[in-house]
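Cross-check.
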Amino acid sequence: MFIHFFTQLRAAKVPVSLREYLMLMEALQADLAEKRVEDFYYLSRAILVKDEANLDRFDQVFGATFRGLESLSDAVNEAPIPEEWLKKLAEKYLTEEEKAEIQALGGFDKLMDTLKDRLKEQQKRHQGGNKWIGTAGTSPFGAYGYNPEGVRIGQSESRHRRAVKVWDKRQFKDLDGDLQLGTRNIKVALRRLRQFARTGGTEELDLSGTINSTAHKGYLDITMRPVRHNAVKVLLFFDIGGSMDDHVRICEELFSAARTEFKQLEYFYFHNCPYEYVWRTNARRHAERIPTWDVLHKFGSDYKIIFVGDAAMSPYEIAHPGGSVEHWNQEAGHVWLSRIQTIYDHAVWLNPTPQQHWDDTYSIGMIRDLMQKRMYPLTLEGIDQAMRTLMR
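Predicted model, tokenized:
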């Protein structure tokens, strides 16, 4: 059926290549379409259609080929339980009914005040309780337990992702900017953000100029001209660590593609929400912080701003001073996000979380509103929409 689909596209004058067909097969083998025809439609369109002028013909061929089908396969693959899920026997996983019975303490300020009181009162280690700083319990303070709104202390990684603050020094890794696999289509989508200018030395043959000059002078007069470069300037801000660990691969692909397409690219890292500083190297992010004000003063208002992050965080991180999960920020996250957009007219947010799940997380709606609805899914179609927005 897929070979028939490919040949019908060629017959309909949709310019698809064998390489693109093989790429589509690799994507299906990786189960990127999740066996649903609707998902396969968007996946195949993103890979096979390079120009919107061919969308109508693609839709006609797709409809004729797959009409009446709801699933690409009836096979169901059972995912094995990861071994690490069976470790840490001291960890307590509660039922949904038990989780529903646990109530938040009553707001961010109350949570911080209660933590201060616990630190003064507690004299020894605790495990399995619901009050003291300990492990495997339902207290809002500690590690390897569950509470809908707490402070994580002494835990190597996030599990439930409900912590309001993390009282540990966490280490993040830089994104690999040399990754090539899977970046081709992202490059194609990024190419919408182009403003060409000729700069630099005479490196390119000016064919029409050579012909005109030769015709006027009567002898071969070779004319050279500067090579055209994409003059667009881009500031790229990556959310790193925490829930973004789930999206490292796609972010690395985007990073690799952006470094290839944009010659005037500057990138920085932040965690969850932009605050008073950013950094360039995650291994030294605590020692070599860059004040956000320095970035805004150094790079002019002609830069295009792209934020990349899942926007999944405690609402306190956006709305409250001191709400950052890792440090005590003097100004709320929304202040910095609004300040950046005031300086730069063109800013978008790319979210790797599937768009159908955005309404499940309250903070995503908050960030989307602050971005004036200019949040797009980190998909080929979403990148294309974002690039169109930045070019307006």
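The chain is about 35% helix and 15% strand. Residues 74-83, 85-95 have pLDDT under 50 and may be disordered. Passed to J.P. for a second look.
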